[in-house]
Structures are given as structure tokens and as C-alpha cells.
Amino acid sequence: MRYPAAETAEKHQRILDEAAKLFRERGFAGVSVSELMEATGLTHGPFYNHFASKQELMEASIEHASSKFLTELEATPPSERGKAEYIATYLSTMHRDAPGAGCIIASLGPECSREAGLRRALTAHVRNLISKFAGHFPWKSKRRARSQAIHDVAAMVGAIVLARGVTDDELSEEILNEVRRHLG
């Protein structure tokens, strides 16, 4: 049975949205195709009408999450205040506690480093993020904008990874606050 193109596109989008969320929450191995399809309200069978494999979905979900994340960055005012607010939001307990809605690098970076296709998708995201971060916000030196953007992005991602990884809430918040203070 053929479905209208709009309905097929909507289902495809739903699968990508849910996959991007669940993969960031539980990792690639922590989510089965049948679980994912159940979470979208679809049966397992139609999955292969949208993706040839789970691997293809994993790569597509990185690209999908990347697009949304970069769109949010571009919606931030391109000012010192906008940059400070972006950094503060990134380095917040809300972001720390919601990996499914957050940064794909902090959630999936280590897993992506082990798979060539995932590394390619993550590399494209990191390149775009650094480029947009350097080009979108004002910097003290235009010549050093890229260098400073790499530094800031690496510090932000590292802080979220550390803050999520420790069991001490006080230490977790201290990590976020200190990195935010140094970048702000």
C-alpha cells in the first residue's frame, strides 16, 4: 500500500526526531530498531522503507540533530550578549540533565569515534559548529575567531561530559559554573 508523499515524509521526520533523541539519551547500542519504531507509534516493518539499516539511521540522526542544533545557534542574537546567553544555556543544568535534547558531540562523540560513517557525520557537524560559532558571534580578534571558537566549543563540550559523568551534584554544578565563568 502506497502512502501519500507528505505522510511518508512526516513519518520519516518522526523517526529521525525520535532516533536523534533516544540515541543521545541511551547511546546507539542502547536503542533497538523495534524500540525506536514503537516510540514513534509505527510498527517495525516500515523502518526499512525509510532506512536500509540501523547504521544508516544512526548517520542520518546525527545529520538531523546537527541541523537542528546549528539552526538554534543561528537563531541566537549575533552579539556579545547573545554569545554569553548561548554559552550559559549550553553550560546549564537543564542541558546537562537532558542529553536527548542536547549536544550530539557531548552525548555521542566517544561512540562516533569508533565507526567510520559516524565519524564522517560527526566531523561535518564539528566543522559546521566551529565555523558557525566563529562567524556568528563577535570576537576580540577576527584573526583568532576560529581558534577561540575551537577553544570555547571544546571547553563547553568537555564541561558537559564531565558534569554528566560525575555522581556529585555539587561538583557537577561547579564544573559548569567555572567553565561558564571563564568563557563568559
Automatic annotation (TrEMBL):
Q: Which UniProt keywords apply?
A: DNA-binding, Transcription, Transcription regulation
Q: Tell me the SUPFAM superfamilies matching this sequence.
A: Homeodomain-like, Tetracyclin repressor-like, C-terminal domain
Keyword field contains Cell cycle: no
Establish whether keyword 4Fe-4S is in the entry: no
Write down the DNA-binding region ranges: 32-51
Q: What is the protein named?
A: TetR/AcrR family transcriptional regulator
HTH tetR-type domain: from which residue to which, for each copy? 9-69
Q: Which Gene3D superfamilies match?
A: Homeodomain-like, Tetracycline Repressor, domain 2
Say which species the protein is native to.
Pendulispora rubella
